[in-house]
Amino acid sequence: MPNRSITIQNVTINDNSSPFVIAEIGHNHQGSLELCKQMIDSAVLAGVSAVKLQKRSNKHQFTAKAYNSIYNSENSFGVTYGEHRERLEFGRDEYSDLIKYCQSKNIIFFSTAFDIPSLNFLVEMDMPVLKIASGDIVNTPLLKEASETGIPIIASTGASDLVEVRNAYEILASGKSEFALLQCTSGYPAKYEELNINVITQFRNSFPDTVIGFSSHENGIVAPIAAYVLGARIIEKHFTTDRTMKGTDQAFSLSPSGMAQMCKDLSRIKLSMGSSDKRVLSSELISMKKQRKSIVAARDLAKGRIIEISDLALKVPDEGLKPYLIDNLIGKTLKVDLLEDDYVKMEDFA
Fold first, then answer.
1. Residue 223 backbone phi and psi in degrees, to 5
2. What is the DSSP annotation of 83-118?
3. What's the mean pLDDT in 144-160?
4. Do 249 and 298 fall within a single domain?
5. What is the reported pLDDT for 254?
6. Are residues 165 and 69 part of one domain?
7. What domain range includes position 301?
8. Beta bridge partners of 54
9. Is 135 left (phi over 0), alpha (psi -120 to 50) or beta?
10. 51: CATH
11. Whole-prediction pTM value?
12. CATH assignment of the domain containing 287
């Protein structure tokens, strides 16, 4: 059996694990520390394993033209795209505050590094795990830098093919960090017919030593359940406290009630998968007795009768011979008198 494992803070994730659920707050906090804390509170109540933000060094990441371009959007927080992005960023003070806050809530807190300066920042902030976004699955310098930190890495694979994912795997595998790969479709929201959660099976076969997960961008909570059944052990889902708020990710994010339901369903799925050993459970014995049938006399039968199939019937409850033994009784001679509905026993026949 493959030994897939990744340890994030004090949580070890492997094939036998319960789902590790990440509430992706991203920039749904709108640049407000207080709103972010409210979202963290709601995520904790919903039962998630971790909360996650996003970190960008915007002037490093975007060209000057893109950074200074006018951003006319109902979701804009600034006149230019750069102003919009900067309005959503948290710095060292906010991260320090949130780290302490999440420690007080006993919830794992981390962030996505979208560039090397942001990676260095998150390393300095002592993140317990680093996230690599789908857009950077082909960003060799970022992957190499991240893999040398020794900090566990979760990498999404949206908008990539297996060759690109395998290249990223080789880079990460050559580094010092444990890592996991998430199947992802980069649609916002993603269409159900494009989720391709069967890729999870392909990933598990292609990377047998690696924990596989699912980053879910569709509206709803069905796909993460199916993903867990297929072997995804990390589930990432966008999260907000109000889907009508301003922001490009709000509308396809889960609300607190939706996240709570998904966490509950995932927990139930873990329990319900149970064992591959097919056996009778003690909890089934009472219902089995009420539902299964036994062989009984179909009518009054006299001693010495040679039994025909019409002499026997199958009736509830299950307190006598099993139905699969009925053919063994045909043609045998009855040694005792039987009344209608009497249970028959093997010793009743010669």
1. -60, -45
2. HHHHHH---HHHHHHHHHHHHHTT-EEEEEE-SHHH
3. 99
4. no
5. 98
6. yes
7. 282-348
8. 112
9. alpha
10. 3.20.20.70
11. 0.90
12. 3.90.1210.10
